[in-house]
């Protein structure tokens, strides 16, 4: 009964989903569509889901960390885009969730508008609904934040992180941040959008002093420029995952890393883009003295020379694994060693598919494969 009353009290600007497992893309849903999983209907005990756009759904069958999905309705009426007491109470439950995802609900085709109109709508919903989320108390258990690239762009365009606006955020304990685009807005933005530079995300990252892992999937919304600003804003950063089709070149990205003293602390580097690589590019990787794991997934027609990799291990005593995935050749090249100074072990796998690589190299699941699955 309490759950039923909570659901009936919720307004129409959010959709909330509790989950202990990754959402199946074939069953994704939100308040703007009519596809609600059958088990969600059972969970809410007969509540008329068509009358509310915030839904509490909790899978109890798994021991995975609890994951809360918060969908913002960018197309709701302006007065509805406010954080109500019910949502605020759910967000600050102390024993609840460790992962919080914030995205925008997908509208039906009848509300598609020009890119500038969508841009304005996202800026509006970010200022009215997203900022209050970060200013309300959040549970100490929250360690991972996942935000859509569209929401990030909206936040940047509203200057919401200006010092006179923010007096301390509740996300300061977050250790992992993932930013990736929502597919429904991608075609619209790629044609006429107003992309921002990665360096503009500095205004968000400075409020995450404990951040150790950053996954940035830029595509066409966020240009991969100003990476040194990201590193300067994250003194505790140890893992950096970059995925983009908007890189100017591999060399251009890696060269940015050496401009920051903070890059010397990186232990994991993943670079996923569609460009060729040269020995000169690997020379910039050699300037990461603490790096232990490197993965490159490149749309390159150049075969990686073993001598390049041997030289890399010679210059980086901390390096343990180097993985090069070639979607062009459908192959994966692996080089590893069990300790500094140990003999190198080489392997060439006849696949570039992550599910297969998980089976072949399960020890790299938490380092590489989970993140690459998220970026797929």
TrEMBL record:
InterPro entries recorded: LRR_dom_sf
Domain of life: Eukaryota
Protein name, entry field: F-box domain-containing protein
Species whose genome carries this gene: Dibothriocephalus latus
Lineage: Eukaryota, Metazoa, Spiralia, Lophotrochozoa, Platyhelminthes
